[in-house]
Design a protein that fits this description.
Blueprint (H helix, E strand, L loop, with lengths): L3 H14 L3 H12 L4 H8 L5 H40 L15 E2 L1 H15 L3 E2 L5 E3 H4 L19 E3 L5 E4 L5 H9 L4 E10 L10 E11 L4 H15 L7 E8 L2 E14 L2 E4 L4 E11 L1 H6 L8 E8 H9 L12 H7 L1 E2 L6 H4 L3
Parallel strand pairs: 2-6
Antiparallel strand pairs: 1-13, 3-5, 4-5, 6-7, 7-12, 8-9, 9-10, 9-11, 11-12
Helix pairs in contact: 1-4, 2-4, 5-10
The structure holds phenylalanine (PHE).
């Protein structure tokens, strides 16, 4: 048998030197575990003469207890040290004032763009973007808008000088991004294009800077029926009205043929305005089948490909949905207005709120 005093000193020294709870556990198993040194010595008691056995047994039991106590107290010490270390590194300054409640809100235009994007996203559209400063070709010519078209007159369009003497325009609609996409990508194309647009106009329903969202679908088979289905679904999802009456009224755009303006049903009874049912109509967007000339201008074969496009005024949709009477207030940066019409940051829309089936 080992010298018990030596053994005791060795083990206690090991316990004292242990640097982690794991190291302590290793010592415990090596000493007091099933095959541990003290456990072995206890087993050896059986071979001793009875008078020796008694004294040795008592000594061993005392040693066992002493070691168990030492392990326990070292374990507490290590845990305390660990807690101290964490308290030092993770300390919180309780004297700091609390973080202020977030004051910001989402502007109704951004909210409306998010809602529109969520609905078209669900239908498989992706988002495309283009520059606000355009050239004549993208904004007009490629879109089959002839040189004498009224939209080109100074009256509507902001012109600016380009770097090389050519004329630039602030895009008057988001349609030039149709051209940019069709010249850069091969069909199938299914995009929406939200963005700023500019026209020299200013009253309660017009602002020189406003927003549109364009839609473009080009493939081999999409037809007027798809255009209608897509826009009816969008209108009823956006306005959250089941069976929203939607009317397609023949119209003219140089870049679509045939073209249709889309109206939704509303009531204007005795000053009360409501979207949904009633016998009145309100125009909300322009649409049509992409004119074959436009496809050809972009290098897409119109005998092989076809599709539809639409353009929606975002302010108009936001005004209708959220009951905002004057378009100019969108850009006044009046905090009282934003507090009234703005959205809390947690009110970001999802499809769950947007789509009504
Ligand atoms: N670009 C047209 C406008 O600004 C809207 C539109 C887009 C119409 C696409 C038809 C197709 O009025």
């Amino acid at each position: 048998m080992d010298n018990p005093d030596q053994l005791r000193d060795d083990i206690l020294k090991d316990v004292d030197a242990a640097e982690s709870v794991d190291a302590l556990e290793e010592i415990r198993v090596a000493v007091l575990g099933k095959k541990g040194r003290i456990t072995d010595m206890m087993k050896g008691l059986g071979q001793m003469a009875p008078d020796e056995r008694k004294a040795a047994g008592q000594a061993l039991n005392a040693l066992k207890d002493e070691i168990a106590d030492a392990l326990e107290s070292k374990k507490t010490t290590l845990a305390d040290a660990d807690l101290d270390r964490r308290l030092m590194t993770e300390k919180i300054d309780v004297t700091l004032p609390p973080a202020p409640e977030p004051q910001g809100s989402i502007h109704p235009i951004s909210q409306t763009i998010d809602e529109i994007t969520a609905i078209f996203g669900e239908m498989g559209f992706t988002v495309a973007e283009g520059p606000d400063i355009e050239d004549d070709w993208h904004n007009f010519t490629a879109l089959n808008i002839p040189a004498d078209h009224p939209a080109r007159q100074e009256h509507d369009t902001f012109y600016l000088p380009g770097e090389h003497g050519e004329r630039k325009v602030l895009r008057t609609h988001t349609s030039p991004v149709q051209i940019r996409t069709m010249t850069a990508e091969k069909p199938p194309i299914r995009i929406i294009i939200p963005g700023r647009t500019y026209r020299s106009d200013y009253d309660a329903t017009h602002s020189p800077m406003f927003h549109q969202v364009e839609g473009l679908v080009i493939d081999k088979t999409s037809h007027m029926g798809h255009l209608k289905g897509c826009l009816i679904e969008f209108c009823s999802a956006f306005f959250e009205v089941d069976d929203l009456p939607v009317r397609f009224r023949p119209s003219y755009f140089p870049f679509t043929e045939p073209s249709a303006e889309v109206d939704i049903g509303c009531t204007r009874d005795g000053g009360e305005f409501r979207i949904g049912h009633g016998d009145d109509w309100l125009e909300i967007l322009g649409s049509g089948m992409v004119n074959p000339n436009v496809l050809a201008n972009c290098g897409i074969d119109p005998t092989e490909y076809q599709g539809f496009a639409f353009g929606i005024g975002i302010e108009r949709l936001a005004m209708l949905k959220y009951g905002i009477p004057d378009l100019r207030t969108f850009y006044d940066s009046d905090l009282r207005w934003l507090r009234h019409y703005g959205f809390r940051s947690l009110e970001v829309p999802g499809m769950v709120g947007g789509l009504v089936r």
